């Protein structure tokens, strides 16, 4: 119920840059698995990215309609963050990422593009720290599908773009993401 309420709240914001629930889920996972401990990051550093940034001006609550709505959003985000932390580190069998699933002629097609985009936004908060993980032989293969699906499209080769555009390959890459996140969580100390 809380996730549905948070999804509705984010979808109703006036900011076009607000994350959807899938991107938020990936973003929070990326923050929890970051080499930079989340408690060392002030909320003002990472929270505004969720709703597309704080808008300076006459209304300090923008893009929220009221301070009450803003507080409700932050509360729901922090509760989801806490649940993810517990699941990823204490009960990984209970964790299930929020991914798009579409019905196709051959069955279901999983799409982790938004989740991975959110994850990569978390990576962008500490690129130097994550850089060592992208070079680490243990972490690099785990990060590869996430970076491919959620990275900057302008940096992708024509072959990589074609791979993402092909629904079967997108499905295959997307199905690698949950196992990769769980494998990273098993290697990351809290």
Task: Give an overview in words.
The protein is mostly helical and 190 residues long. It is built from 9 helices and 2 strands. The chain has helices at residues 2-11, 21-33, 43-46, 67-90, 113-123, 127-135, 140-150, 158-165, 167-187; strands at residues 100-104, 107-111. Strands 1-2 form a two-stranded antiparallel ribbon. Helix 2 packs across helix 4, helix 2 runs parallel beside helix 5 and helix 7 (140-150) packs across helix 9 (167-187). The protein is globular and about 45 Å long.
Highlighted features:
190 residues, 58% helix, two-stranded antiparallel ribbon, mainly alpha, 5% strand
- The assigned structural class equals mainly alpha
Query: Looking at the chains present, what oligomeric state does this protein adopt?
Result: single chain
Kindly report the spatial arrangement of strands forming the biggest sheet.
1-2
The count of β-strands is 2
Order of helices and strands: HHHHEEHHHHH
Q: What is the C-alpha radius of gyration, as a whole number of Å?
A: 17 Å
Short account of what is shown:
With 190 residues, the chain is mainly alpha-helical.
Helix-strand blueprint:
Blueprint lengths: L1 H10 L9 H13 L9 H4 L20 H24 L9 E5 L2 E5 L1 H11 L3 H9 L4 H11 L7 H8 L1 H21 L3
Antiparallel strand pairs: 1-2
């Amino acid at each position: 119920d809380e996730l549905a309420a948070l999804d509705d709240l984010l979808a109703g914001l006036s900011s076009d840059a607000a994350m959807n629930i899938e991107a938020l889920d990936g973003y929070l996972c990326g923050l929890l698995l970051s080499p930079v401990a989340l408690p060392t990051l002030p909320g003002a550093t990472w929270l505004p990215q969720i709703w597309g940034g704080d808008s300076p001006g006459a209304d300090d609550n923008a893009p929220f309609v009221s301070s009450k709505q803003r507080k409700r959003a932050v509360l729901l985000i922090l509760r989801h963050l806490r649940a993810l932390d517990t699941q990823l580190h204490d009960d990984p069998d209970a964790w299930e990422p929020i991914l798009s699933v579409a019905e196709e002629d051959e069955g279901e097609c999983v799409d982790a593009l938004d989740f991975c985009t959110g994850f990569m936004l978390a990576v962008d908060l500490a690129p130097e720290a994550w850089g060592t993980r992208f070079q680490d032989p243990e972490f690099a293969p785990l990060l590869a599908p996430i970076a491919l699906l959620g990275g900057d499209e302008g940096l992708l080769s024509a072959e990589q773009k074609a791979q993402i555009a092909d629904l079967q390959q997108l499905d295959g890459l997307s199905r690698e993401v949950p196992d990769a996140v769980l494998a990273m969580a098993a290697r990351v100390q809290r």
